[in-house]
Amino acid sequence: MKTESIYNQPDADGFFGRYGGSFISETLAQAVEELQQAYLFYRDDPHFVVGFQEELADYVGRPSPVYFARRLSEQTGGARIFLKREDLNHTGAHKINNVIGQAMLAQRMGKRRIIAETGAGQHGVATATICARYGLECVIYMGSEDIRRQSPNVQRMELLGATVVPVESGSRTLKDAMNDAIRDWVTNVDDTFYLIGSVAGMHPYPTMVRDFQTVIGKECLLQMPALFKRLGMAKEHPDVVVACVGGGSNAIGIFHPYIEHEAVRLVGVEAAGLGLETGQHAASIQRGSAGVLHGSRSLVLQDDHGQVQHTHSISAGLDYPGVGPEHAWLHEIGRVEYVGATDDEALHAFHLLSRVEGIIPALEASHAVAHAVKLAATLPKEQVILVNLSGRGDKDMDTVMAQTGRDKR
Amino acid sequence: MSRLQATFKRLQREGRKALIPYATAGYPYADITPALMHVLVEAGADVIELGVPFSDPSADGPTIQAASERALQQGVGMPQVLEQVRQFRQSDTTTPVVLMGYANPIERYDQIRQPGAFAADAAAAGVDGVLVVDYPPEVAGDLSAQLRQHGIDLIFLLAQTSTERRIRQVAERASGYVYCVSIKGVTGAKTLDIDQVKATLARIRQHVRIPVGVGFGIRDAHTARQIAQVADAVVIGSWLIESLEGKPAADALAAASDLIRSVRRQLELDVPEQTSSPKAKNAKP
User: Fold this and answer.
1) Which of A81, A145, A385, B1 is 20 to 30 Å from B205 by CA-CA measure?
2) Which residues of A294-303 are buried (b: 16+ CB within 10 A; e: fewer)?
3) What pLDDT was estimated at residue B276?
4) Searching chain B, which residue's CA lies closest to the CA of residue A307?
5) Are B232 and B217 a contacting pair, CB within 8 Å?
C-alpha cells in the first residue's frame, strides 16, 4: 500500500516512536503473543479480508455516505462542511467495523467467549450484536457511572444476549471497565478473546483496531472526488478532516488514509469538559504526559505520583484519561493538530445539527461538529471540512434532556 | 553479597523456605507501614514485598485494589513508600525489601525528577529488589540497567502460561528471585492447584538457577506449607491484607503477626531437626 511506504508505523514491537508497545504482566504474555501472530497471519489472508468486506457491506451497510451539510455550512458563513455518516452504520456508530474484524479473528482462533469494555455503550452494543450474529458468549464490563449515564445501551446489550457486568472500582468509568476486562482475560485466558473497542491497549490492538477502522478514510478517498465532481467543485480532497478523540479509533480510521496527503489538515478534537483550565476534562493529548496505562505507553492524564486522574466529559465515550499511542505519535511529529471542545460547545452542536440538518449526533461526534463549525467560520467558502460523524445521538437523549433541564432552572 | 542473596543462602543452609508477606504500603493507615514491616519480620518473615499503590492495578484482585485505593486516598505515592523503607531500615539492616508495583509510578518518578532518579533513591532508602508487574523482559532494559548499577535486583514474574522461550528470556535477566504466579488470574483469586504449580516449577527450574517463589492465591497456612515443600519461597498477599481490614492500628499489627506466625509454624514442620531456632536471625543488632 502506498501509505505504508511513507508512513510505516508501528515497528515490529508495536511502537509508534516512543509510544505504544506491550506493557503487560507475564500472565497475559502468551495470550497477547498468540493474538499478535493470529492477526499478522489473517490480515494478509485473502479469505479473511474478503469475508470482512462482505460483512461490512451486507451487515453494516457500508459504504456509509458522505453528506454535504449545506444548511449547517450556510450558518457558519465559511467553509463547506461534509459529514461522513458513520452514524448510519448498523448499531449506530463506527464501532461495529472493528468489532466485526476482531470477532472474525476470535472465531478463527477458536475462542468462543468474548469480553469487552465499554464507555458510552456503543462498543458494548456493537460487540453484543456481533456475538449474537456469530453465536458467541458475550460479557461486557461497564463502569457503574456509565451504566447510569447510558441506560438505553445497557438494555440493548442485554436484549442482544450479553451479560453486562457493572464495574465499581476506581472512577467507575471506561478506564476501570478496561482494568476489569484485563482481569477477566488473565483469569479465562484459554477460551476468551478480549475485544478492545479503541486504538488503545497493548500491541497489537492499536494497530489492529486502526486497520479495521481505516475503511472509513479509504471510503472517503473514493467518495470525496466523486461528490466534488457532482457539486461542480474542482477538488479531490477535503482541506481539513475533523474527528473527535477519546481513545481515538474513529479519528485514526478517517485520518490514517489521509496521512500521506500532506496538504490535508487533520484535526483531532478532545473533550475539554468544563474547560481545559479547570482540570475537569479528558484532554490527554493537550494536558497529559507520557505514561503507561492499559498495556501501552501513551499520553496520560496523571498526577505527580503517576496516578491516573479522573476525567470529566459530558460524553461517556470520550471520558478516558489516555489516548491511543498512534495519536500521541501523530501529535509529537505534528501531523495532526489536537484541539478541545467543551461540554457546552458539544451540547450546542448537538442541538444545532439536529435542528438544521435533521441529524441527531452522538455527544462524542458533537465535539467534532462543534470544532468544525467554529473552524468553518474562519475559512473561505471554497474550503471543505470533512467531519467524521462517528455515531448517532439517540443514546444521549437522557443526558441532553437532563442538561437542558438544568440550564432552564 | 546482596541482602536477598544472603537471605536465600542462609535459608538454604538451614533447610528453610522463605516466607514473604506482601503488604500494600500505606494500608490500612498511611503511617503504619514501618511498624507493620517490623512486626512481620518478628513473626517470621524473611523478605518483605511492599506494594506501591497504583490507580489502575489491572493484575490485582479486589482486595489489593481496595488496599491500593485506600492508600492513595491517604496520599501514599512512591516518595512516601521510599520514606517508609528508609524508616524501616533505621532499625532493620538485614531483611530484604522488594517493591512490587506497576510501571507508571516508576516512570513518572524519573519524568518529574531525572532519568535514573528512582533507582538511586530506592537504593538510598534501602530497597533490595523491584518487581514491575507490567514490565515484561522485552521492555525492562533501561530500568534493569539502572537498578543493577545500584545493586538492586529486578524480579520477574513467570506463569503457567509462560512458554519455554519466555522462561529462558527471564532466566537470562532475572536476579534475586523469580516470582511464579500460581494461578491463571489476579492476586487473591481462587484456590490454586498444587499439581499445576509443581509442573510449572519444574518447567521454570529447567532454566532458572536462582530461587523461585510462588504467590497469588495462597489463602491458608496448609496451602502455604504445601507450596513451601516445592518452592523456595511463599508469598502471602491478599490473605494478609484482608486480616488488616477495618481494624485499629494495634489490632491490625496483632492480626498480621498472628497470621504470619501461623504460616511460619506450618513451614517449620518441614525443617530438618538439627537446624537452630528461626528466631536467631531476627535478633536485634
Assistant:
1) B1
2) bbbbbbbbbe
3) 54
4) B55
5) no
ipTM greater than 0.85: yes
Catalytic-residue membership of A137: no
Write the residue in A25, A183, A292 that is nearest to B107 by C-beta: A292
CA end-to-end span of chain A: 56
* Residue A57 contacts residue A49 (beta carbons within 8 Å): no
Which residues make Cβ contacts (< 8 Å) with residue B198, sequence separation at least 6? Answer: B230
Under 8 Å between Cβ of A213 and A97: yes
SS (H, E, C) B82-128: HHHHHHHHCCCCCCCEEEEECHHHHHHHHHHCCCCHHHHHHHHHCCC
- CB contact under 8 Å between B136 and A22, yes or no, is yes
SS3 readout for A282-322: CCHHHHCEEEEECCEEEEECECCCCCECCCCCCCHHHCCCC
**A166 touching chain B per CB within 8 A:** no
Q: What's phi and psi for B46, nearest 5 deg?
A: -100, -35
**In this complex, do A291 and B162 lie within 8 Å of one another by their Cβ atoms?**
no
**Percent of chain A that is helix, strand, coil (3-state, to 5):** 50, 20, 30
Secondary structure of residue A85 in the 3-state scheme = strand
Tell if the CB–CB gap between B104 and A29 is shorter than 8 Å: no
Q: What is the mean pLDDT of each run of 10 residues along chain B (285 residues)?
A: 95 97 98 98 98 96 96 97 98 98 98 98 98 95 96 96 96 95 86 92 97 94 96 97 97 98 97 64 42
| Residue B138 CB burial class (10 angstroms; 0-12, 13-18, ≥19) | middle
Contact present, B62 and B36 (Cβ < 8 Å): no
Full DSSP string of B8-31: HHHHHHHT--EEEEEEETT-SSTT
Which residues of chain B are within 8 Å of residue A170 when distances are taken between CB atoms? 55-56, 69
Catalytic position from the list B14, B42, B46, B49:
B49
pLDDT digits (tens, 9 = 90+) for A1-40: 344 446 889 999 999 999 999 999 999 999 999 999 999 9
Minimal Cβ distance to A307: which of B55, B161, B189: B55
In contact, B109 and B127? CB cutoff 8 Å: no
Touching B: A residues 211-270, CB under 8 Å = none
pTM for the full model? Answer: 0.95
Assess whether A145 carries a catalytic annotation.
no
A390 counts as catalytic: yes
Q: What is the pLDDT of residues A126-143, one digit of tens each?
A: 999 999 999 999 999 999
Minimum distance, in Å, between the CA of residue B12 and any CA atom of chain A = 27
Q: Find the mean pLDDT for residues A47-67.
A: 98
Instruction: Tell me which amino acid residue A380 is.
Output: P
One-letter amino acid at B53 equals P
| Residue to substitute from A189, A297, A307, A311, interface B, most B β-carbons within 10 A | A307
How far is A388 from A248, CA to CA, in rounded Å?
A: 12
pLDDT digits (tens, 9 = 90+) for A244-278: 999 999 999 999 999 999 999 999 999 999 999 99
A329-363 pLDDT per residue, tens: 999 999 999 999 999 999 999 999 999 999 999 99
What is the chain A residue with the closest CA to B113? A304
User: Is there a contact between B184 and A293 if contact means CB atoms under 8 Å apart?
Assistant: no
Residues of A in contact with B181 (CB under 8 A): 26-27
